[in-house]
Amino acid sequence: MKFTLVTLFITILFFGITVYVFLMTKWSTTLNFRPITRTTQLKYPSVTTELIKNNNSSINNWISNVTTEHIKNNNSGINSRISNVTTEHDKNNNFGINNLISKQNITDNFSLRTLIRIYQKDIQIEDMDLDQSNWIPLNKSTYHLPRQKNCAVVGNSGILRNSACGEDIDSNDFVFRCNVPDVDNYVKDVGHKTNVNIVFQTTMLELYDLCTNATLNESTLAERLNVLNGSIIWYPESFKSKIVTNETVKLVLKCIETKFNLQFQFAVSALGFTGNMRRLLNLKKPTTGMRAIVAALSLCEHVNVYGFYPYIFDQNGKNVSYHYYGPFFRLDSFDTSHNYSAEFHTLQTLDNRNVLRLFTNDCKH
Ligand SMILES: *[C@@H]1O[C@H](CO)[C@@H](O)[C@H](O)[C@H]1NC(C)=O
Ligand SMILES: *[C@@H]1O[C@H](CO)[C@@H](O)[C@H](O)[C@H]1NC(C)=O
Ligand SMILES: *[C@@H]1O[C@H](CO)[C@@H](O)[C@H](O)[C@H]1NC(C)=O
Ligand SMILES: *[C@@H]1O[C@H](CO)[C@@H](O)[C@H](O)[C@H]1NC(C)=O
Ligand SMILES: *[C@@H]1O[C@H](CO)[C@@H](O)[C@H](O)[C@H]1NC(C)=O
Ligand SMILES: *[C@@H]1O[C@H](CO)[C@@H](O)[C@H](O)[C@H]1NC(C)=O
Ligand SMILES: *[C@@H]1O[C@H](CO)[C@@H](O)[C@H](O)[C@H]1NC(C)=O
Ligand SMILES: *[C@@H]1O[C@H](CO)[C@@H](O)[C@H](O)[C@H]1NC(C)=O
Ligand SMILES: *[C@@H]1O[C@H](CO)[C@@H](O)[C@H](O)[C@H]1NC(C)=O
Ligand SMILES: *[C@@H]1O[C@H](CO)[C@@H](O)[C@H](O)[C@H]1NC(C)=O
Ligand SMILES: *[C@@H]1O[C@H](CO)[C@@H](O)[C@H](O)[C@H]1NC(C)=O
Ligand SMILES: *[C@@H]1O[C@H](CO)[C@@H](O)[C@H](O)[C@H]1NC(C)=O
Q1: Ligand 4: residues within 6 Å at CB?
Q2: 105 C-alpha to ligand 5 centroid (Å)
Q3: Smallest CA separation from ligand 7 atom 2, residue
Q4: Which domains does the chain carry?
Q5: Tens digit of pLDDT per residue, the chain (365 long)?
Q6: To test ligand 10's pocket by mutation, which of 209, 217, 219, 254 has the most ligand atoms within 8 angstroms of CB?
Q7: For residue 319, how far is its CA from the centre of ligand 7 (angstroms)?
Q8: What is the pTM of this model?
Q9: Is 60 close to ligand 3, i.e. is its CB under 6 Å away?
Q10: CA of 4 to the centre of ligand 4 (A)
Q11: Annotated catalytic, 338?
Q12: Do 162 and 189 form a contact (C-beta atoms < 8 A)?
């Protein structure tokens, strides 16, 4: 008797918890902000410029090596494109692409139908089906981008500061940018045309913080949001991530739409984009910018790449900041798992093979 009662009690308790958990996790049409459990923390450098300046040991081999070589030869200072600096690296390539790769290879491996799928303007954020486990082919709520002739992909490297590349960038038919950069204050250097903004996990979380944490209203991110207005926000990753879920993304979109009065369209990728890219380009953890470049290569006839640069000095030996906007941070002061060096060599290789054009100098013709 006692045993049965205990069993019954436990069963009811278990049932209750199950129903509760089900109800709490079930998506309802109202968007409720909830705390996110992070598996990775956002990390910002706490190093001052002075400290970095006086600390030679923090300079990685690859940086000092390549930079020294680079500056010594100072060939590329003359051209607007880096051409032969990488030949040696490319030959003994341990990191970048091992196989010959053509534009056709990339087009073949990333079909436009699966690469970027854009929700129609009239689809409400609440009604977007972000259930990737059950993706059906394009239908009337989504469409994919039409092909473009000339595209620019604009990375955020400090190499763009004082570059005067704005006009060159804007002369492209279609412009990709990454992770909500500051455009308004640097139009002369980076232009202002913005068709697609790739917003990746870390930035999604920053936007989430901006929406949920009133004390962050005045953060610089809030001031940069204008770049999103009128653009397509593309989230190029699976929602299976424990960090950023489909629910998080909806909340962020709804929030920036209403709280900051922004108009935009949202786009997602089919599953497999990242995996495909990792295999094809032999990069373990591609940056957001690299994703944009792959997208552009699939979409556009000609791809012009700006603002990608992994070194701490430019070709005249001047310091290069991690980003062209915001305070000065040296690239190697960041705790990052990206391999900027490998990516840059990949880009140089693609440049050498005329798959794309990589610009690392200023545009003062
Ligand atoms: C850093 O290294 C350079 C070249 O090796 C040297 O000239 C400079 O004095 C060093 N700076 C410090 C603070 O050690
Ligand atoms: C110099 O840089 C290294 C590597 O980033 C760091 O571990 C070390 O604490 C730094 N030293 C000083 C004096 O800042
Ligand atoms: C630079 O590269 C050479 C070979 O290319 C290597 O022997 C050396 O250890 C590297 N690092 C530095 C700091 O010179
Ligand atoms: C680049 O390298 C190739 C072969 O190594 C050479 O023929 C060409 O002249 C070089 N170009 C420049 C600009 O140095
Ligand atoms: C690129 O395409 C060529 C010809 O279609 C093929 O032989 C080669 O294996 C491809 N390379 C990669 C990395 O897929
Ligand atoms: C790229 O496409 C070719 C055929 O077009 C295919 O054989 C190859 O497996 C693809 N590679 C990747 C990494 O998807
Ligand atoms: C279109 O696709 C979306 C998402 O893939 C789905 O939610 C919706 O039910 C589909 N609509 C039609 C009419 O098939
Ligand atoms: C998120 O995706 C899961 C499956 O992966 C699905 O069950 C759920 O309905 C989706 N939620 C939203 C808000 O789209
Ligand atoms: C909100 O932002 C401030 C300033 O960055 C921070 O100190 C605080 O912990 C944040 N609060 C929450 C709930 O994240
Ligand atoms: C931040 O924005 C919220 C909502 O718009 C507002 O209620 C709050 O007062 C703002 N906080 C600051 C510090 O401006
Ligand atoms: C975004 O663009 C729309 C349409 O051009 C405009 O009405 C709105 O004020 C803009 N929002 C911001 C924050 O500038
Ligand atoms: C590289 O060349 C430019 C001119 O093309 C010159 O102004 C600059 O000082 C040179 N840099 C180095 C480190 O020699």
Answers
A1: 83-84, 87
A2: 6
A3: 139
A4: 49-359 (3.90.1480.20)
A5: 565 666 766 676 666 555 554 444 444 344 555 554 444 433 333 222 232 333 333 332 223 333 333 333 333 332 223 333 333 433 344 334 445 667 787 777 777 766 788 999 999 888 888 876 655 555 678 888 889 999 999 999 999 999 999 999 999 999 999 999 999 999 999 999 999 999 988 788 888 878 876 666 556 788 899 999 999 999 988 777 666 788 888 888 988 898 889 999 999 887 777 777 777 777 777 888 988 998 899 889 999 999 999 887 777 778 888 899 988 877 665 555 667 777 887 888 788 888 899 998 889 87
A6: 217
A7: 50
A8: 0.69
A9: no
A10: 85
A11: yes
A12: yes
